[in-house]
Design goal:
The chain is of the alpha+beta class and about 200 residues long. Helix content is about 20%, strand content about 20%. Mean pLDDT is about 85; it is low at about 1-10 and about 15-30.
């Protein structure tokens, strides 16, 4: 049986080379291929190529995408994700009991990637955990902004393109900083640390 080190012995152990690195540097450290595979398989998703890992400061959120009902939206989201477009963007509009919205590079709901998408409205209901595209008045005006529903929102059904569903980590979406009246805009909002396609991890 291995002896446990006492406190005096542990004080004399040399520090690991990563101990004094700043956060920015540790993020750049390479991950072994074996560890990456373990992480990928720890997310129990139906299709890793159509599932996203959304990292927040509260925890990891898994979004399973729905290419069968919104193929063009899913393809565009994946394209933007792989470009790193969403990394660092804010949850700029968050309304308690309704939804959390992100994906605006300007951080105020007025920006996008510059490519509008033709609506793919479908019969999938807006319920807790549904991920859907934000848009302006025109049906074909969705771009990069999306929202995650906190509760059932049947009045949105058939009016916005549903393209995914949170299957794990909804409790972390619940923790996002909420906005105030009248439109839910958040002061000093939480951000998307990173958004990745799970098959790419």
């Amino acid at each position: 049986m291995t002896d446990l080190l006492d406190k005096n012995k542990t004080k004399n152990l040399s520090k690991p080379s990563t101990k004094n690195l700043e956060n920015k540097e540790t993020k750049k450290l390479a991950m072994s291929e074996t560890r990456a595979k373990k992480i990928k398989h720890s997310y129990r998703v139906k299709d890793a190529d159509n599932a996203l890992l959304l990292q927040t400061k509260y925890g990891d959120v898994i979004i399973e995408m729905l290419p069968d009902i919104a193929p063009n939206h899913v393809a565009r989201i994946k394209e933007l994700v792989r470009q790193g477009f969403y990394n660092g963007l804010k949850f700029h509009r968050v309304i308690e009991g309704f939804m959390a919205q992100a994906g605006c590079p300007r951080g105020d709901g007025t920006g996008g990637s510059g490519k509008k998408l033709k609506a793919e409205f479908n019969r999938t209901p807006h319920k807790r955990g549904t991920v859907s595209m934000a848009r302006a008045m025109m049906p074909d005006s969705a771009d990069s902004q999306f929202f995650i529903c906190y509760a059932d929102c049947p009045w949105l059904d058939g009016q916005y393109t549903v393209w995914g569903e949170v299957t794990s980590g909804m409790e972390y979406v619940d923790m996002l900083k909420k906005g105030g009246e009248p439109n839910g805009m958040v002061e000093n909002p939480d951000e998307i640390i990173a958004l990745s396609v799970i098959s790419d991890i």
